[in-house]
Structure formats: C-alpha cells, structure tokens
Amino acid sequence: MARIETPRRIRGTQDIFGDEQRRFAHVLATFERVRALYCFQRIDIPVFESTAVFARSLGETTDVVSKEMYTFEDRGGDSLTLRPEFTAGIARAYLTEGWQQFAPLKLTTSGPVFRYERPQKGRFRQFHQIDAEVIGAAEPAADVELLVLADQLLCELGISEGVTLQLNTLGDAATREAWREALVAHFEAHRGELSEDSLTRLEKNPMRILDSKDPRDRPVADSAPDIDAYLTPEARAFFEAVTAGLDAAGVAWERNARLVRGLDYYRHTAFEFVTDRLGSQGTVLAGGRYDGLIGSLGGPDTAGVGWAAGVERLAMLLEEPAAATIDAVVVPMGADAEARATGIVADLRRAGVAVEMAYKGKMKARMAKADALGARFAIIIGDDELAKGVAAVKTLGAGTQAEVAFADLAEALR
Ligand code: ATP
Ligand code: MG
C-alpha cells in the first residue's frame, strides 16, 4: 500500500496552542477592553481586496508591495491580494461604504495579515495585527489620542518597561519637498559610500535611506540633514501640539529624527514603540499620519492617522499568563454514575459553572486530572452516591469533603 505523506505546515505560518495561545488571547482581550475606554468602534473588513487597493495606497516602491504581497488571480480572472496590513482596506471601506457621514471615525480591528518574508523569530508570513485608526480628523488631538491609547495598552499588558516611544515629524507637503531636496543632495554627495539597496532608494524613495539597517549606510544616514530647518510654521506648530498633548497626558516620548515612513502621503506625525528585548525585530507598534492616502484611492482629500502592532511580538513580551482555571471536575465511577454525570455536567454548565468530566482511566487518573486542570472541586459520583442522590464534593487543596444533593450542586459550587 502506498504511504500517505503527512501534510506539512506552510513555512511562516503558525498553529497557536497552549501557553502561546493564552498570551495571544490576552493581547486581543486587553486591546478590546482598552479600545472601548477610548470610544473606538470595532470593525471587520475582508481578508482579501483587489490588488489595486494595496498597490495604489502603499506605493509600488515599498518593500511590502514590491516583494511581500500574496497576490493571485481568482477563478474569475481578477487580481486579488491577501491583506498585508489594515489601513488600505479600511480606507477602501470608508469610501465604498459611505462612512464619510460618520467622520471623524475612530476605528479598531484585528486579525491575520500576510507578507511573503523570510521567516525568523518574531517574523512570520501569516501574522496578526491589532490596528487603530482615526479617519477624518486633521487635528493633532487625534494623533495624541492614538498615542495615549497605544501607551495605555502597553502598560496594561505589563510590557511598557523597556519600550520607548520614538517620535518624529515629516512636516507638511512644502516641508517634505524642501527636506527631500536637501536629503537627495546629501546622498548624491556620498553616493560611493551607500549600499546597492540605498542607491535604488535614492532613485525611487530617498527618505527610506534614513532608516536603512545596512551598516554601510548608517554613517551617511546619520549625518544627513534633519527636517527641523525645513519645517514650515504650520508644520512646527502641529508637531508642538502633538508633543504638548503627550506631555499633558503623561506619555513619555523621545525624538528620533531618523524615523521616516517612505510613502508620499505620510504627513506630520510618524512614530514607533521600540524595544531592545526582541533582537532585530524590535518594533512592536508603528504608525503615523497619512493625510494623502484616501486621495490616492480616488477619494476626496481626507485626513487620517493610525497605527498597527504585531500581536505575536506583543505576546512574546508578556509575562507568562496564568493558566485558565475551572470550577470543578466531575469524576463518575462506573457506567451508571457516568450516565447520571452526563446530565449533571450539562446542568452545571447551563448554570454557569465551568466543569470538566473525567471519564478516562482509573479513579487515581481521574483525580489527577482534576488537579492538573486547577479545579477548585472534585465531584465524585459512585454507586453509593447514586443510591443516595448526592455527590461527594471534595475541596481540592483543603482536602475537605462534603455530601451535596445533586439538585443543590450548582448553588454549592458558586
Ligand atoms: P519590520 O521593520 O519589522 O519589517 P514593518 O515596518 O514592516 O516592520 P509595519 O508594516 O509597520 O511593520 O507593521 C506593524 C507591526 O506589525 C510591526 O511593528 C510589527 O510588530 C508587526 N510585523 C510586521 N511584519 C511582521 C511579520 N512578518 N511577522 C510578525 N510581525 C510583523
Ligand atoms: Mg517589514
């Protein structure tokens, strides 16, 4: 007989189980709680979109669009792409669903995103993001609110220690144009010292040289002119309003004048929460203001600002979360007791008591299961108990035991 080959898990994907799953779920539950405190609405959008949604809004020269997208033709011949991030899809939804009428809109979402990257620690091909956006607000107060939300999330996850908020401004269109020219002049003067990748960036997207990780680029990038000398009064005032808001809210930040977002539509605020605890995968949460994005999708000029964070990277930073505990384990001894226990377990669960039934192995193995699950009570039902209509309820840990009538069990366990 031919041997059947076991299917393999696709490289860069994950099967999330046990302790890992608890961490993962804890990140999502905390995000869900904190976003409600800030009055952000939850939305859900498709996992795939027309390829144009990402290609147009992210820009053809970005790594994500040029190298990392999962793009395929569907059976109808349309080019579709698995979302590599959320912002573009949210902007598309804002336009196609007529959400302009609700602006300014404060939105959050979460779920899987897909990027064809080289898998390594903290870097997957299917990973998960949490995402927060404010669309239709051009005021610096929106940037501040998003940053304070991010800060509170990291605090409530208990991982703010060693995580720094790095902040920069990319100015307005006039600022950016003037700064870009100064950068190009500087990089042209040091062409010979740049990596091949940065020579390409110099043609297509010179700002990206500033955040190059290639050591050959660092001296040239570090000596490049800061944006400060090119800030228009409006752009300077915007940045000052953001930093003043963070100070007022008690959120620590530091200026990183090398922090850029490569895309043309990015304006004003750019930020990253960075840690040194994850090696080279140190950015846990990143975002900025993207006032030109909705315009690039053919919509009206609309302000927007937002961030995304990798759930796996946040989860890796968490202290080990406590294992979930249950209230009780029902331990039936014998076929009759087991039949009766099936009804009892169903009733207890309907009454809101978290119970497990131990139906495998000898008495000893069944009691061991109650301990392993961290149950507070073991409910033992044997032939004697069946005859009397009671269960022997053992308080685990204390070692005490009491008889409780079947009908009173839910009350006694609460
Ligand atoms: P990096 O520089 O690590 O590639 P990025 O700039 O591509 O990050 P963003 O597009 O800003 O990242 O995505 C937001 C967040 O999503 C990142 O800060 C990170 O936490 C997470 N992230 C990005 N790519 C991956 C990946 N391949 N696997 C796991 N998490 C990721
Ligand atoms: Mg990346």
User: Care to count the β-strands?
Assistant: 16
Q: Beta-strand percentage? A: 15-25%
CATH topology of the largest domain: BirA Bifunctional Protein, domain 2
Give the mean pLDDT.
93
> What count of structural domains?
2
Uncertain segments of ≥5 residues (pLDDT<50)?
Answer: none
**Which CATH architecture of the largest domain?**
2-Layer Sandwich
- Can you list the strand order of the major beta sheet? 1-5-6-11-10-9-7-8
Shape assignment: elongated
Largest sheet: 8 strands, mixed
Q: What's the CATH superfamily of the largest domain, by name?
A: Bira Bifunctional Protein, Domain 2
Q: Classify the secondary structure makeup into a structural class.
A: alpha+beta
Rounded to an integer, what's the Rg over CA atoms?
Answer: 28 Å
Structural notes for this entry:
- The protein is α+β, with helices and mostly antiparallel strands.
- The chain has 15 helices and 16 strands.
- A hairpin with a 5-residue loop joins strand 3 and strand 4.
- Helix 1 packs across helix 11 and helix 5 runs parallel beside helix 9.
- The radius of gyration is 28 Å and the shape is elongated.
- The mean pLDDT is 93.
- It binds adenosine-5'-triphosphate and magnesium ion.
- The site of adenosine-5'-triphosphate (ATP) has 18 residues, from strand 6, strand 10, strand 11 and helix 11.
